[in-house]
């Protein structure tokens, strides 16, 4: 049987060829407009790679706080956590093209420490070390044999490590802006996306949902955390009239970005309000649908966070759509190949 399988010709699905063609097109256009296309790619990194980082937090919580949610959620969450090394590879274009993406000269005259801290070499070193740590921590979590002390220590280090990383990757696009709770706001979004992806994957895998109200309550709690951290950052900025923060928000409220901002908030708050009702929290169909709505809002959040400030914003958004399409086709192709192999 093994010999027969080995002799079978490998055929790449049509979606696989489409993914390769899209990736080639993206690379060609990125050479022509590097800054815009890297911004679009960074938005995809926020949504896709961020979900993998958020899943590490989710898996750690399930091991530290065992309960009724493990049976439904842990198998799918472990699969998403196993995606972490690939999520690190998705960051490679940002690492290679950081010179076109970030305003390195803005750190000049800001003090010796900041000039050294934001040197491209140290910036890249921090990114590489973070992904190595995240991938290693993911391997520890997948074994399910680590002691609670190891899991909690790794979780604390992951969050502490992520605080400067969030600033490096996303806030440094606007070097004059700085928020004390920015990393926690981003991490809350990553965790929310990870929870939604894990729930949807569990349904795709056919995991029986014996207690859907638990997943509905978890989704409600994650949405409340997202709303709290996002609102507090906004409230502190405007109540204290902090110029750098006001400018950062104003840039994201002008023109079409104001509409995108309202849609982003609505696609998060509407599920939050609906989940306050018991029948919605207990309905598997409701939960899966609301997870899709939240992920759509998170896609808008990624664009809203990353693209403003780019001179070619339309190109950046098209680059994000193209990159997301490439990733979707590639993921569907891999899924098809694995299922054919299993059959």
From TrEMBL:
What organism, scientifically named, is this protein from?
Answer: Tianweitania sediminis
Give UniProt keywords alphabetically. Membrane, Transmembrane, Transmembrane helix
* Keyword Hydrolase appears in the UniProt entry: no
Write out the transmembrane intervals.
40-68, 80-101, 121-140, 152-173, 179-205, 217-236, 256-277, 284-307, 313-337
Supply the name of the protein.
Quinol:cytochrome c oxidoreductase quinone-binding subunit 2
